[in-house]
Design a protein that fits this description.
alpha/beta, 2,3-Dihydroxybiphenyl 1,2-Dioxygenase, domain 1, 4-stranded mixed beta sheet, 5 helices, 8 strands, methylmalonyl-CoA epimerase activity, Glyoxalase_1_CS, VOC_core, metal ion binding, lactoylglutathione lyase activity
Length: about 200
């Protein structure tokens, strides 16, 4: 993804405007969240260690090879039985052709700062920190041992079904958590409960 670019002309063009005009159809059900993601991994023990040690997930269940080739491990981070499941046997790392990334929401901006510090202590390379453009979430992004891209975020814009998204003129893409706090878009309260989390 090109970073630091906002192409206002293309954003206002007919192709993008046509895409943005698509509205969800009425259905006899309401989707409320992404329930879980299942990932193929090359070393199931290494991945279970990463998701438990680095992201704090707990194993709920596991299938042996006889039930799922490569074994399968169900991991939770909320009251759901599993939010992530891992299946062993991938031949090599993720090629990022089908899934771009998986994102985990936290309740406070302080937790994003704490996540950055924790990932650094765990030796996990962070390849993005700051605020995204569309959606305005403040995030840290990194990879698991197989190269799956992961995001921990706070502050994603909330919209009703018929509400228009924040216009591009209000986007405030920045490349550090500190800049995200200092350069908030309209309506986003970026006050830290613990200002000592900042790195100056």
């Amino acid at each position: 993804m090109a970073r630091g670019i906002v192409d206002f002309d293309a954003l206002k063009g007919p192709e993008i405007q046509k895409l943005k005009s698509v509205k969800g159809k009425d259905t006899p059900f309401v989707l409320t969240k992404i329930g879980h993601v299942v990932l193929k991994v090359s070393d199931i023990d290494r991945s279970v260690d990463f998701y438990s040690r680095v992201l704090g997930m707990t194993v709920s269940d596991a299938y042996p090879e006889s039930m799922m080739p490569g074994k399968m491990v169900f991991m939770r981070f909320s009251s759901d039985h599993h939010g992530v499941a891992l299946i062993g046997g991938a031949s090599d790392g993720a090629k990022m052709q089908e899934m771009h990334h998986m994102a985990f929401e936290v309740d406070t901006i302080d937790e994003v700062f704490r996540a950055r510090d924790h990932l650094t202590r765990e030796g996990v390379k962070i390849f993005f920190q700051g605020r995204r453009r569309a959606g305005a979430q403040i995030a840290v992004e990194f990879q698991d041992p197989d190269g799956h891209c992961l995001e921990i975020y706070w502050g994603l814009d909330q919209l009703t079904k018929d509400e228009a998204a924040r216009p591009p003129e209000e986007w405030r893409e920045v490349f550090s958590l500190e800049d995200a706090v200092d350069n908030a878009p309209p309506g986003q309260d970026t006050a830290l409960a613990d200002p000592s989390l900042r790195k100056e």
